[in-house]
Amino acid sequence: MSQFPTPKFLDQGKPPHILTLILLASLSPLSMNFFLPSLPSMSLHFQTSPAALGLSVGIFLASSAIFQLVIGPLSDHFGRRPVVLWSLSIFILVTVMVPFVTNTAVFFILRALQAAAAACIVISRAIVRDTTTSAAESGQRISYVTMGMAVAPMLGLSLAGFIDSWFGWQANFWILGCVGAVVLIICYFDQAETLKTRGVTFKKQMAQYPELLRSRRFWGYCLSSALGSGAFFAFLGGAPFVGSELFHLPPKDLGLYISTTALGYCLGNYLSGRYSIQFGIDMMIYLGLLTTFFAMSFSLVISFLGHGSAVSFFGLMAFAAIGNGITMPNAAAGMMSVRPDLAGTASGLGGSIMIAGGAALSAAATTMLGPNNKETPLVFLMWLSVTGGLLCILYVRRRNKMRVI
What whole-number distance in Å separates Cα of residue 315 and Cα of residue 245? Predict the structure, then answer.
């Protein structure tokens, strides 16, 4: 049983309420894609193409990977609470600076620093592991946290196009900064420290990475997560171009279409939270990846035959997101189950590996699309990524049956 009392909202003497964890986990994905419907407007402001500005998604992801490498050990050494508060402060400051920028290079730098919000995902998962007793229970609770966090980007993308139309693209960043401030205030009053033991130096914390990297099970869970979610990251990199240039969707319609993936992810999280303890994390990861694989296979066939449309492209991606919503929380729980005493480090390292792969796929998706292309190369890239993830979880299940680390 956990040594922590039942959470109560805005009670510093108890672990964070699940609402606080949801808000923490929501900020990074919200800031990653909130501005996507504004890319056409922003391209006029920065005098460049929407595809070029779309690279900022890959920059955000790459920077998130670097932040997560450091954040995990920092939170295992200093505690969850101080790292969250400092990370949120950096995020707010950088976000409110974006509307004043006129140079593309400076915008990319600020987007890289904005990825400090990635600390919130790492630490929300580590807090769950701190306050649960088994991998299956962690997977269930992480599912509910990520189910809630899927609602924020879904609503954000739906609203961002309208905000851009009414007030201009700068308003999206002002609103994002205000959201960050609200999360900071709530965390200050609600987030009690959940780390049970501290005192190991940061250098020693970083030295734990080789031990995790020598675990084939850890790699299996990481790659299942990274490749399984790779379809989603490639989608984020290429969807703005596909929607606006190939399917000729206006910004507000593009935001609505992209937001359907968040709805599918939310449904997948619900199914994960409902059945993770019953079926176990390995089976749930397998079923999630299998669902995404079939969705991407169907989308690839439709596109290859020349029948691709906005409905088929975004609709099947929403179905694939159901599988992703099942996969991700259980893969995260699997990574932290290898060494529960290093939950923050494992969460940071695993998240970094996943995000680094996502950044590469997002950049690849951006560069492979052109005005004379169809969406087929992007769909094939997404299919290839999830196929790799499916092979990885089959390998992990085999090793777990053999009881090999």
Answer: 18
Residue 8 included in any domain: no
Please report whether residue 1 resides in a domain. no
Domain membership flag for residue 45: yes
Across 48-57, 246-255, 291-300, which has the greatest mean pLDDT? Answer: 291-300
Q: Are 136 and 333 in contact (CB under 8 A)?
A: yes
Q: What is the pLDDT of residues 18-58, one digit of tens each?
A: 888 888 888 887 887 777 777 778 888 887 777 777 777 77
Domain that holds residue 364: 18-401
What is the total count of domains within the chain?
1
Whole-model pTM above 0.85? no
How would you write the chain as a 3-class SS string?
CCCCCCCCCCCCCCCCCHHHHHHHHHHHHHHHHCCHHHHHHHHHHHCCCHHHHHHHHHHHHHHHHHHHHHHHHHHHHHCHHHHHHHHHHHHHHHHHHHHHCCCHHHHHHHHHHHHHHHHHHHHHHHHHHHCCCCHHHHHHHHHHHHHHHHHHHHHHHHHHHHHHHHHCCHHHHHHHHHHHHHHHHHHHHHCCCCCCCCCCCHHHHHCCHHHHHCCHHHHHHHHHHHHHHHHHHHHHHHHHHHHHHHCCCCHHHHHHHHHHHHHHHHHHHHHHHHHHHHHCHHHHHHHHHHHHHHHHHHHHHHHHCCCCCHHHHHHHHHHHHHHHHHHHHHHHHHHHHCCHHHHHHHHHHHHHHHHHHHHHHHHHHHHHCCCCCCCHHHHHHHHHHHHHHHHHHHHHHHHHHCCCC
Residue 103 lies in a domain: yes
Domain CATH for 181: 1.20.1250.20
